[in-house]
Amino acid sequence: MKSNFNLNRRRFLSQAGFGLLAFAGLPAALQAMQTGDSMHTLPAGKASANFLPDVEIELYAQASKLSILPGPATWVMRYSAKLIKGPSNTLTDIPGSYLGPIMRFQTGQKIRISLINLLDEATIVHWHGLHVPAEMDGSPHYAIAKGERFVYEFEMLNRASMNIYHPHPHHQTARQFYMGMAGAIIVNDAEESRLELPSGEYEIPLVIQDKQFDNDNQLRYTPHMHERMTGYFGDQILVNGRPKQKLNLASRAYRFRLMNGSTARIYKLAWDDNTPITVIGTDGGLLETPVQKPYVMLAPAERLDLWVDFSGRKKGSQLILGSRAFSGAVPAMAERMSNMMGGRGRHGMGMGGMHHGMNNDVNAEDTRMGGEYPILTVTINREVTDSPTLPSHLSQFKRYSLNDVANPKQPLPLAISEGPMSMLLNGRGFADDDVQDFERIAVNSIQLLEIFRSQSGGHGGMGMGMMSMAHPIHLHGQYFQILSRTAENPGAGYDTVKEGFVDNGFKDTVLVMPGERIKIIKPFQDFKGLFMYHCHNLEHEDMGMMREFSVE
Ligand SMILES: [Cu+2]
Q1: pLDDT tens-digit profile of 322-349?
Q2: Residue 544 C-alpha to ligand 1 middle, in angstroms?
Q3: Handedness of CA 502, 282, 265, 362 (dihedral sign)
Q4: Gap from CA of 471 to ligand 1 centroid (Å)
Q5: Fewer CB in a 10 Å sphere around the end CB: N or C, the chain?
Q6: Could you count the other beta carbons within 10 Å of the beta carbon of residue 241?
């Protein structure tokens, strides 16, 4: 029963007790914000005199209030930013959204970002997907307290791609992310520019999230123990921070840049008229050639770059991008309970969803995870005749093979263990100074890693099958490539998802379904230090499903 959750819960109870009177007048969401752990804090980074930035940004983390649903405004935690130096298109606010501004960088730029923490709790920013030095990676070790500043300095080494900035303080990542702290980082490079892909108003970043609101329109983040196991699910699907998102577009090709900004929800994306989905890129940028899929899976923190061509569509026609039914992503027990409670109704997934009451309206959407619900409605509001055509070749990159790796016969293990009280990687939770021998990696090596379920399993005596569920596994540092994905005894539901993986590009997060064994090849170049690997089901991460590699 050792778990960080219990420790947190005790802290929560004691803090809630002491602070009860002071909290009484605050909205629930803000009360929740007051319960953060105090991080141990290392000295914050200082701007260095010999680093000459091309781009300089001040990034603020703060609580604020904005209107999301009709009625009362909603308290959120969010990022806002100010451009101190650099190209004027570096920062783009998303109107009416709590999401942080889109940051746009060029490969090779030297970037300085000063995080200024105006929250009443510790935080730190992680640049998800970016290849930066360990001390610039936003590890929980570097969390800063209210009023403090952390100066990040790094060179953009990434290829063209869409990445994420989000909080990473231990035990608080899920809640801070859920309360609104997230934003997109778009990197451009020369190879991509030559393609002249749809840009400007024809390039649309779409961040998909699920939230629960209380009767006063306040965000509710109150995961019970079983919701920490399955992940915490909302019953409202937001795109770029807005519910029931609608886009009015022209009858031509667009570039949709999708990001799953949910803490735990996995989407199975498809068009309502069964138009195939054309994928041109994944987490780490463009594929070599476009790929067509009947549907695509998008797990937390994954990104997909889509070519969406509305050419020939008539003015007034509508298309809906939605999530289709699938199963097997949450433990069989939770799925069964959820089905017993009825297939339709506006409630979260599984056991957690039961608390939110039933809705027998046949027109209600089934927003349980794995249910069928719309995400985004596109209306064609103007017919045009000129449209770019999809390039047949997108990018060129080295495809890693076993010949490139230091350990072709001995993959580094990423063993998932699943139990009712704990989700772990390689048998342990996150801890300071706890690097195991096999977690030490020679700098500038390329490694084979294998993600699988631990055979020892059995935390608390629960059978493995009953607790087996999907985990989006994320590795900090450089992108990796997927060498193989095999399903041994994958269980019911696998057939409902297996066509939806795009495995032939660069990735930093990979969805591992029950029964799957995934081999990846990842470079550990340029930077020594501690780099995290963890489940990006953020409830799992906060429970301790997170470890570090020491690159030495
Ligand atoms: Cu997980």
Answers
A1: 999 999 998 887 887 777 765 433 344 4
A2: 10
A3: negative
A4: 4
A5: N
A6: 23
Centroid of ligand 1 to alpha carbon of 108 (angstroms): 34
Reported as a pLDDT band with limits 50, 70 and 90, residue 4 is very low
> How many A from CA of 244 to the centre of ligand 1?
28
Position 458 confidence tier, pLDDT thresholds 50, 70, 90: very low
**Alpha carbon of 470 to ligand 1 centroid (Å):** 7
This prediction's pTM: 0.88
C-alpha dist (Å) from residue 403 to 400, 447, 475: 8, 11, 22
CA distance 28 to 214: 9
User: Which three-class secondary structure state does DSSP give residue 543?
Assistant: helix
Can you give the length of the chain in residues? 552
386 CA to centre of ligand 1 in angstroms: 45
Provide the CA 176 distance to its chain's centre, in angstroms.
13
Annotate 376-410 with three-state secondary structure: EEEEEEECCCCCCCCCCCCCCCCCCCHHHCCCCCC
Mean pLDDT, all residues of the chain: 87
